[in-house]
Structure formats: C-alpha cells, structure tokens
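Propose amino acids for all 181 sites.
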C-alpha cells in the first residue's frame, strides 16, 4: 500500500496497459521505464518479483478460463450465424458439459444458476443480453403472394447484377454466384 496522507485517497494514475508496456520496456532500466510511463518504480519492482501473483478475487471458477473462452466463442459464433443463444441454452450446455466431465462444483444437479450466469457475463463483457423485438402486426399480415413477389424481386436483382453458374457435384447441386463483368 502506498504511503498516503490520512486525509487523501490514493488513486493510481496509470492504466494496466501502461504497466504492461513499462514491464516490456524494463530493459531500459527500472527508473527510465518508471519515468517514461509515469509508474512508481516500486510498483515495477514488485511486479517483477516472485512475490507478485495475479489473481482474481473470490473463489475459483468451475470452468477454466480456456473452457469459458470456448463457451464465449460458441455463443458469439452462433449469434453471428443468426442463432443467438438464450440464457437457458447456455446454462443447459454448461450442465451437460459438467455431467460429461465430472468435477467438484456447488451447483445443484450440476446446473449453474442465476448467480453463475450474471458473473459469467461480468467476466466476459464482450457478451451482451439482447431482447428480441416482437413480431409486428404488419409482419403477421404478410400473404403468400407478397412473399413470392419478394423472392421474384430478389431473383431479378441477382440476375441483373450477377451471373449464376450451376456446378453439379455428385447428387447435390451447388450454385455459385459470380459477379458479372
């Protein structure tokens, strides 16, 4: 803890990114790196010592950081493909994973709860909860003829701007759309 006057509160004046850059530039010397990145020399010295252990507060998570990373990747990829995962899907997937790879956990029947879900989202700020929009009455009133007209318009647009080449591959047909020149 830094030496601080009793009436003042200590605020660190450097970011974690600056600290990492300073540690990378440590071959310049501790004093020079501390001066360049405006980080106390004692902080750099402590980070380089064997006493420093970077850890998160609280108990160890049930899934490792690699497993959580794979879960995040799966959620992001599914969402990108147009199949976003609901909270129930994520909890069920974790539950199935824990049943296949047994390990000690505090979940009832290996199923994580609301608390785990909230902390998981907090640990991974790249994920966000979105609420889907309700189907409008205009969407409900679409007729089959309107849908067919829409497909016809798409077909006309594609034939106007692209030329289609059909390649026969065994039993299935594959269509490649090539830009017209």
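Proposal:
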């Amino acid at each position: 803890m830094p030496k601080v006057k009793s009436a003042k509160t200590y605020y660190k004046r450097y970011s974690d990114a600056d600290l990492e850059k300073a540690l990378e530039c440590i071959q310049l010397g501790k004093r020079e790196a501390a001066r360049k990145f405006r980080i106390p020399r004692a902080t750099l010295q402590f980070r380089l010592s064997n006493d420093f252990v970077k850890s998160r507060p609280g108990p160890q998570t049930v899934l490792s950081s690699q497993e959580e990373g794979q879960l995040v990747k799966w959620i992001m990829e599914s969402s990108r493909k147009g199949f976003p995962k609901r909270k129930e899907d994520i909890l069920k997937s974790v539950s199935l994973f824990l049943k296949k790879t047994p390990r000690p956990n505090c979940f009832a029947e290996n199923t994580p709860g609301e608390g785990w879900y909230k902390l998981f989202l907090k640990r991974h700020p790249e994920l966000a909860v979105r609420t889907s929009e309700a189907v409008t009455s205009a969407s409900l009133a679409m007729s089959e003829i309107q849908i067919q007209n829409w497909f016809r318009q798409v077909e006309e647009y594609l034939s106007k701007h692209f030329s289609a080449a059909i390649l026969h591959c065994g039993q299935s047909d594959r269509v490649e759309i090539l830009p017209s020149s």
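Residues 144-161 form the longest helix (18 residues). The chain has three domains: 16-48, 65-123, 141-179.
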